[in-house]
User: Which sequence fits this backbone?
């Protein structure tokens, strides 16, 4: 079994641009990636372009569209594709994910994405973006292969928006990405009816 982590460092997390500078978002994305690597262990990074940071890991450089690049790797079978922005993932959660029975194992994100996918077959083809979780279930149904769902709160938190940062700051103590946000001045204000993410510049 091989673990693939797609990663792109160019202008990452653009929806957080009103809260972080471009350099901060790049560094934050790298810290999240390291959190994911801590959880999954040995992995291969799938990148459009490798820099010095990427070259310290095993990597595949592929500038093709994400689905095309991943599908070319899925032909090998026994491939897990883990997103790089799910920093609350832990070793225990990842190992439990791999134990689920089925030809395809899918772990959904909160907004309909696919945060983790494990294919035990060689002919599955992914279709990321725009509700990929439902699309992947339909693809498996059309192929007449068994798709199983792995339901995990921590694996569902992919970081794209302010509300996602709040979840990381509530649940992520000890994670590299949490410590980076804390260094930038982020904290949670619990004094109001609902916890609120604050940045103290």
Assistant:
């Amino acid at each position: 079994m091989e673990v693939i982590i797609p990663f792109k460092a160019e202008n990452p997390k653009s929806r957080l641009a009103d809260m972080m500078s471009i350099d901060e978002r790049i560094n934050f994305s790298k810290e999240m990636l390291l959190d994911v690597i801590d959880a999954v262990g040995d992995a291969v990074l799938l990148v459009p372009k490798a820099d010095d940071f990427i070259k310290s890991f095993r990597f595949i450089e592929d500038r093709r569209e994400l689905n095309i690049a991943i599908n070319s790797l899925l032909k090998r079978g026994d491939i897990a594709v883990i997103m790089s922005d799910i920093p609350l993932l832990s070793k225990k959660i990842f190992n439990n994910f791999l134990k689920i029975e089925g030809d395809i194992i899918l772990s959904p994100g909160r907004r309909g994405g696919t945060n983790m996918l494990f294919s035990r077959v060689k002919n599955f083809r992914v279709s990321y973006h725009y509700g990929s979780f439902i699309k992947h279930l339909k693809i498996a149904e059309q192929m007449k292969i068994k798709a199983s769902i792995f339901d995990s709160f921590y694996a569902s938190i992919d970081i794209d928006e302010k509300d996602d940062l709040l979840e990381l700051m509530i649940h992520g103590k000890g994670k590299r990405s949490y410590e980076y946000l804390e260094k930038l001045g982020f904290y949670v204000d619990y004094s109001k009816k609902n916890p609120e993410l604050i940045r103290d510049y």
